[in-house]
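Objective 1b: paired records.
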Amino acid sequence: MYAIPLAAITPQDRPLVGNKGAALGELARAGVSVAPGFVLTTLAFQHFMAELDVDGAIGRLLAALDPDDLAAVSAITTTIRQKIATTALPPQVMLALEHAHLTLTGADRLLALAVRRSTHTSFAGLMDKHLAVRGIESVSRSVRSCWASLYSNESVTYRLRLGPTEHEVAMGVVIQRMVAAVRSGVMLTRGPSTALAIHGSWGLGSWILDDEVTPDEFVIDKLTRTVTGRTVARKLIQHLPQTDAGGVRKEAVPVLRQSAPCLTDAQILSLAEVGLQIERHFEVPQYIEWAIDAQRTPGLYILRSRPDT
């Protein structure tokens, strides 16, 4: 149970795969298009930490910290993160990761992947993600980086003040094929009156956390399925995958596309239908991250869906 394919995840697996992994598995079962992948489970994290911290010293050190003593917190957490980053995965965990990676990538061992955290609680400091990761060694490093992020200064001080305790902390890691996104964005199914809102721009969705991009906005009436509002922004920057080195690069949007809408009306309405399908499935308004693959038709993938709070 160290690695579970997204398509095989059931509601009972939530403790093993975290909220993000569980939501993606549920979307896949509901027939929504999600990129193929798997979750390295919380059991893998717990096995790794048990071997890393045999005598429980990490938990004792953290429990003794004063969350207001930021210098002491930083000193301890830096050491923990470095230890996680430089410690090899246990053989059983590495074997499960290698098998799941081979199943996902097939003959293309350097297929670009996205590696993202999946926890049961929204901790501070867990906003970034690893994109265009290629090769099993890079995937392994990204997994350990995800785990290490649980010991950022922000996450540890959050837990010291609000919980959970260290022995309750665990993380799943979602590993999926990268979507070759020519356009991406977010969709909020909770809008004023009967409206749904879509925000989008060119390239990968990593711009969502970056203030450099002002996205287009489209408003759709849920009842009539018509576009009732549109604001087309001047989009100067796009995020694209690094072909060889992995990660993301920023480059200028071609001039002719800067002030052009990133979505056609047909794409807007297709997105809205998927958003409403997801909202009906979960029975609460949703915050949805989406991407449209340049190499597929229509190529719409849902990257994440969570309650819109």
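Objective 1b, second protein:
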Amino acid sequence: MNIYIRSASCISPQQTFGADRLPAEAISFSVNRLQAIEPDYKIHLNIPAARRMSRLIKMGVCAALSCLRDANVKVPDAIICSTGLGCMEDSEKFLASLIVNNEHTLSPTSFIFSTHNTVAGQIALLLQCNNYNFTHTHRGLSFENALLDAILFIKDNPASNVLVGSGDEVTNTSFKILERLGVVKKETDSNSLPINQTSGTIAGEGSAFFTLTGKNDENNLAKIVAVESFSNPGNDTEVSEKVADFIERHKISSGDLILLGLNGDVDGDKIYHEIAENQFPNIRTGSYKHLCGEYHTSTSFACWLSALILKEQKNPAYILSGQSAGGSISRIFIFNQYKGREFSQLLLEKC
């Protein structure tokens, strides 16, 4: 059974929210922390309700409602979300109040909103949706697992419309920890393409939602062909073999596009360069994390980007690694790794 992306909405460090087309140009940065460009929530959300929401909840709910409007779906048959670390801002507020108030007279609000499934719950409450509701949190494979869950749900319920999405944020406190651990680059580094190959990456955040369906329609954005993942490979050779097997099974060719999760870290990106050189030297390759930064569910941004590329049949120069932007695109293969532990392979196809 074929699975289609009926609509997509994304809030990211780029001008992506509310855009039914690819941005003409990408915003370039010279910082080591990319923050999402948030919409005017007064237009999209109930103001009293929005006051009680943290940044991530507002981003997730706003992206989800926009996605459903674009698909003309009032209440989805399932809400499936994903996040790596959940609502960090609310978690930090609760922990800070523990210290300040010496564990006395604590407000439960921040604790209630700090759970990983808060975004999915808030969407369901606003829509009065009592259907299947689940949140996946599996580090760098969180979005991929949510996507697989959605696909299985549609195969069991062919007439259903499933809302699936992601959300992760970087707060001031979490960013300081990343800096202290040497995870992010120095602030003087630039994230323009190609990303400087130095130690550390660029912290990012965002939320992307998709309405998935089993019905083929001329307005669908793209078709999901395959979603695969693996964890903790023994060595780089094992990773190369799995990628080679994926490419062979799906017959990825010169008419396709490879979208890599290059994040600028000299050690982490080594596997991408080796595979690109050995597995697909003659296939167009691009990258996307210089646009959104590195975070647990960044593949959702890549999925949003790929869906619009396939729909418009435009290959924007800002994702390419020094190659021509011409030619039609039949399929896009998204290959990503997170900290050398979690690897995912997604294949999207033109409808």
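The chain has twelve helices and ten strands. The chain has a mean pLDDT of 90.
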